[in-house]
Every structure is written in C-alpha cells, then in structure tokens.
Amino acid sequence: MTVSRLRNIPGIGVDRMGDAADSLHDAAILRLENLDTDLRPPPEALADTHAAVDDDAANSYLPFTGQVALREAAADRVGRAAGVAYDAASECIVSAGGLAGIFNVLLSILEPGDEVVLTDPTYAGLINRVHLAGGVPKFARLEPGADGWRLDLDSLAAAIGPRIKALLIMSPSMPGGFVASHGEWRAIAAHCERHGLWLVYDAAMERILFDGREVIHPAGLPGMRERTVTVGAVSKEYRMIGWRVGWIVGPQSIMHDVRLVSLSNVVCQVGIAMPGATAALTARDDGIAAAVAEWERRRDFLLDALADLPVIRPHGGWSMLIDTGSIGLEPAEASKLLLEHGKVAATPMTNWGPQADRYLRFVFANESVARLHDIRERIRQSWRL
C-alpha cells in the first residue's frame, strides 16, 4: 500500500519518455523530452573538476554546508543579481542540486497542511516536493497570449488564503518559459509583505532570458531581502547538469533551520564537483551569454517552423509548450504519435498544474538547428497536420 505522503505524487512523465526514447537506440530521434543541453560547461569548470578527482581535500564530507570558496562565490552571485549583500558564512548553504535545495527550504518553513502558491503550469517536481514536505499546492494561472505567458494577478490574489505560508516562483519557469515582469514581481512582493509570507525563488534559469530581457531579482525589491530565499544551481546556466551542485541564499533568520534540514537530509554535497562549480561561478567568461544566444536561436527557429501551430512563445528557459488540446489531440496521444511516426521524443504535461494537461513540451536546449531542420515535417507525418 502506498504511504500517505506519496498519494498525491504521480510522477513527472519525463522519466518514462526518456526511457522510451532510450530503448529505441535510434540516433535519429530528436530528444526534446528532457532538460539536457549539448552546450559545454566553462573550460575552467572542467579543468578544476578533473583536478579535484586527485585532490584528497575534495574527497571529504567537510565542510557539511559546502566548501567556503563556493559559498562565497554563490553568495556574491546572488547578492550582485539582487543588489543586496549576503554573508557567505551565515546566509549561504550549498545543496546537492537546486531541487534538493528547494526541498530543504520547504521542509524548513512548512507545517503539515500549510499552503504554497505556485504558477500553473509549473514543473511537476516542484509540486511534488510541496506534497512531500507536507504542504498543499495552490495555483496562480499563467495566461498564454500572442506574445507569451503572463501571470493572472486576480488568480494570484485568489490563491492567497489563511493557510498560505509561501510562494514558490520560478522565473524563467519550466515548462513554458514564463518570465516575471517588474509589475508581476511587485504584485508577488506585495502579497508576501501583506500576509507575512516567504518567497522561495527558484533561480535555476535566472539569466537564460530572451528578447533583450534583463534579470529582475525579487530580493532586491523593497522589504523583500528578509522574505526571499533564493535557490540556484550550476545545472542550467553553466551547463553542468551532472555536477549536482546548487546553493541556498537567504536571510539568517531562516538559514539556521535550513542548515539543520540539510544536515538531516542529503548531509553534504559532491566533494569533487564543488571546485568545478566554484570555477564556473568565478570564471572570467562563464559562457552564459554565448549559450543564451544559441538557445534563443533554436527557440526562434522552432517558433518560425511551427508558426501555424498553437505554440506559446517562451521568454526564457529551455523549453516551450504546444497546446495540442486545441487541435484535438490529447498530449499523451500526440507524444505517442510523435515518437512512433516522427522520431521525436516530447513529454506531455500531465500533472504539471491544473491547466497543464492540454500541453506538450518541446525542449530546445539539446538539439541544434541543423538537427531540428525537419521538425515541421516530422509533426505532419505524426499528426497529419
């Protein structure tokens, strides 16, 4: 019998799609189902990771909250983005990846039954972690439009109830590439201040912004430094998925509890991965600008190639959504047909939020434009459109 904490956790779907594509052993399949990228990490990160394998100091549990140099680099990275200062010793903890950091923060702030507002659609793994931490997800709708996603501020206000403890916001978000505007961040901050809420900010893709957008860090808004906990990682921006290194940066008032949870959960991070992560954060050229330009090029190619289909324009991130429900195809069936007849692996967004189950996700971070050149024809063959 399933234990109670798992009853509301159906999975994320990406694992099943990845397994299905892997089982075919066909290099012609376009891998649009999972957040991977073919772009390389910073050279300094690779060099320092190789060196760490032979460094006995890196083969250690200590320090439990992360290597000092990495904590200093992460605290500086978040502080510069927000325009505020953080103390690396008391306000930064290294986590075993960004999602482990988010889970540890949720465990630090939630009592059973406390509610957490997320955007809809959003990554199923965030929803699942709210459940695992004993929380109850509530949703603020993202509305698709001709120029992309916008946050429905009335829906946000309606989601704020007496049991709300936190807002968990990712910007750019998965899976649709929503990027919060100044006005949307101000509305989020106003609810946090008015109701005494935490803002858990998933900054995994913070700088992966398109169309000339600039980073807006919510901790830099008036009154928000003491309410914002930022969780970042080297996985996306720095193209270092396999390192599993993230960071939690927030006010000292909550970080003691986050430290206790961190010590009781994963305990410590991958020792040989942290020097490479530090090198990425401190590199003279971290390669993010060039990577974003390439990801934006791939996004633009897909938007043009699929212009006659109901694709919602992402403003950042690694993926976009297509509303297959509006063309009479359930996303699961659309995904099945694509893999069988078009050699395209794509994940249906079932359980990624109340309104997400009409969408199919295309990840554009892992396939070049040259590989994507016939995507529209593959879709035609699969869906007869």
Descriptive report:
The protein contains 14 helices and 14 strands. The protein folds into two domains: 4-41 and 287-383, Aspartate Aminotransferase, domain 1; 43-282, Type I PLP-dependent aspartate aminotransferase-like (Major domain) (Aspartate Aminotransferase, domain 2, 3-Layer(aba) Sandwich). With 385 residues, the chain is α/β, with parallel strands linked by helices. It has helices at residues 14-24, 43-53, 68-82, 88-91, 98-109, 124-132, 153-159, 182-195, 252-264, 274-282, 288-305, 331-342, 369-372, 375-383; strands spanning 30-31, 92-95, 115-120, 136-145, 148-151, 164-170, 198-202, 228-233, 246-249, 311-312, 319-322, 344-345, 347-348, 360-363. The chain has an eight-stranded mixed sheet with strand order 2-9-8-7-6-3-4-5, with helices on both faces. Helix 5 (98-109) packs across helix 9 (252-264). The mean pLDDT is 97.
Q: Structural class of the secondary structure composition?
A: alpha/beta
Number of domains: 2
Mean pLDDT: 97
Tell me the CATH topology of the largest domain. Answer: Aspartate Aminotransferase, domain 2
What overall geometry do the principal axes of the alpha carbons give?
globular
The CATH architecture designation of the largest domain is 3-Layer(aba) Sandwich
Beta-strand percentage range: 15-25%
Low-confidence stretches: none
The Rg value, from CA coordinates, equals 20 Å
Largest sheet: 8 strands, mixed
Number of strands: 14
- List the total number of helices: 14
Indicate the percent of residues in helices. Answer: 25-40%
How far apart lie the N and C ends?
Answer: 44 Å
Order of helices and strands: HEHHHEHEHEEHEHEEEHHHEEHEEEHH
CATH superfamily of the largest domain: Type I PLP-dependent aspartate aminotransferase-like (Major domain)
